[in-house]
Amino acid sequence: IEQNYGLEYGLSDADVVELASLVSAVDRQLTPAVDWFLWGEDSVFVKYTRKWCSASLSRLSAFYLPYKWRQRKVYLSRHSQLVQCLRHKSDAEIARELYGMAKRCLTAFSYILGKKTYFVGDRPTAIDAYVFSRLWPLLHYESQQGNVSWHSVGPSGNIDSAVQSASHPLISHVLQCPNLVAHFIRIQNEFFPKAAEHFRRGETSLGKARLISDAFVAHPVRDCLLFAGFVAGVFVAYAHSKGLIRILPA
């Protein structure tokens, strides 16, 4: 018996076309804005993105890999649009353009989802996974750095107060789409129940090891000075062993 385990199995041709267009909209309008938020915003990169990336890296790799990834992500965001050129604009102008497109995309997706459980059909498809993956870092950042208890946001929740106290305008707009937040929570609870622990403020799956990593990553200037001192010490020891320098007795 031939079996198809793809997410699009059993969809009609019309549903497949709709699915492809929605995925394309996420890639073109939402993903660049989320990438710019995570990598292009200095405060977000320092307080959040760099720490999470460095937590799984060695100390030496943590010196340069996050910055290399950041350069690549920012470059892709600058060159992500086909209908308008962003490469010659300032960072503030790029952020305004990308966030504006992302907000329009989120509003449209909220309207398309409506009161349905999933975007297309009666079960999760690729677009549900795409939207979930783009909302995850935004809502997780809010749970770690913001003051909004967005789990309570919903048709009966206090949306206005949540939007006003959100840590970033893009996150505020997400919270203005309570059905998208409810969709995110539903997907997480159904398919990734263990991931909910990441949304508890100050806690990660790395436990106490994360505290050690934070102590290292949070002080790049100190670590650079320590590294420079170590290199200087090695150089002096090598020069002394080769007779290039002499240490006179007191």
TrEMBL record:
InterPro entries linked: Glutathione-S-Trfase_C_sf, Metaxin_GST, Mito_Protein_Transport_Metaxin, Sam37/metaxin_N
Residue ranges of every copy of the Mitochondrial outer membrane transport complex Sam37/metaxin N-terminal domain listed in the record: 4-70
Keywords: Membrane, Mitochondrion, Mitochondrion outer membrane, Protein transport, Transport
Transmembrane regions: none
Domain of life: Eukaryota
Main location: mitochondrion
Signal peptide annotation: none
Domain Metaxin glutathione S-transferase: 102-141
UniProt cross-references to Pfam families, sorted A to Z: GST_C_6, Tom37
Subcellular location: Mitochondrion outer membrane
Protein known as: Metaxin-3
Species in which this protein is naturally found: Fasciolopsis buskii
